[in-house]
Task: structure prediction
Amino acid sequence: MNTDKIVKKAIETISKTAISLMPKSYFTSDENANKYMLTGDKKFSDKAGNCYTCGFGKAVLTPDDIASGRYFIAGYDSNHPAKGVIDDIYSRAVYIDDNTGRGGVVMCAVDAVGISRKDINDIRKLVIESNKIPNLKSINICATHSHASIDTQGLWGEKIYKSGRDEAFMTELKKRTAFAIISAYESRKDGKLYLASKETEDFQFDCRTPDTYDCTFTRLRFEPTDKSGCIYLINFASHAELMGDKITEISADFPAYMIKEIEEKNPGANAVFCNGAIGGMISAKEIKKIYRNEIDCVAYTKSFGKMLGELSNSLDGETELEPIINISSAPVKIKAQNFVLILARLLKVLNNDIARCEKRSVAAIHTEVGYLELGNGDVGIYLIPGELFPELYNGEFLSAEESGTGKAADYKVLSKMGGAKHHFVIGLCNDELGYIIPDNDFVLNERMPYINKGVDKFDRSHYEETNSTGRETARTLLESMDKLISSVK
Result:
């Protein structure tokens, strides 16, 4: 047996043995894992209210002692301490209600590479137990996926076996995010909600076959009746990684400069950015130059964000949405086939809530899916707990002849669910499971699976599999979403 196989076998054995020997208290029961997940509407309704009510709140997350060396930048190499600030990181929240009496909904975005569902449930707990938002039916928190923000997951610490999370920072992040959510409710006003979108050209680059992405830029705009500042919710699919791997100061990456452009050109406005289906490495057009450190990354980040802000400001042909909000969420358990991630969880590098499967040596991760509709079937939003490969949304899979496994994909994709006129994905929403990959192009390194990247028969790299929970994740999530939507419509 060669060295690679010995290492692989040792890690697998350690992981399985640890799962088997861990006491019951180490695992999270279904009841505790889902205690603070508000499930939303049992059945969707076409009853409209007399108007929308919306509010916005935000909180700065940047620590005062950012240059102390305590905080690690997440998204590239480990042991990358922050030395300063380019732009502040925030939590930004929107509260929205249709005034039908069925309850309000929170959508919140945090400038972070990813947030575990356990941390999100801690934020939900703070909001719910504050008793400051009555009749709240759903709280949803996504990460913008900035690769220049502070490590919120634990994977980028000083050592591979040591978490990079600063727990004092995480406690403050949760408090401040809860504050932003409550502030959104307290600042609410009546008004109208509008949809606008545009198919973009020459903004994105796909780093992995198939060359497919969701190029739609979507803007939801709330206009208060009193004509005070509007609230914008923007959706676009691109990795927020434009500051590059040499950056030493924290940043919210391009979303910060998109939001700045929107807010500066629209007096009194506030904006929130929610990322989309970015798996398969959907990034900005010049990402290869950034990877090779051939351009001024800070300047490019600011320029790219400004261009997206200008695009938002230029959109016309808005559609007014009826005051109808339907939302439902469901818990899901994902079998953790990636034994490296489970070992990281057992070492408390990660902090996901986990459960045992039927086999005592196999663990599953507690997560969730959600589906939100606005208007009378006008807008459908798929809330996905990770970095979804866009073909799982749009159906543009590699054929059997082109795929890494030699097999065809046979999924019911998200765009075929729900039936809304306009739809999109909010990724990294209510969890971060890593890459969500179609099983027909899921290729592992034969000798060191989930440790070294695989290479298929076409000599294509399969790096993303090392940062996934496993081959079955995509199917489990899509089937769970289809079941959820079918149950409420």
About this structure: The radius of gyration is 21 Å. The chain has one domain: 1-489.
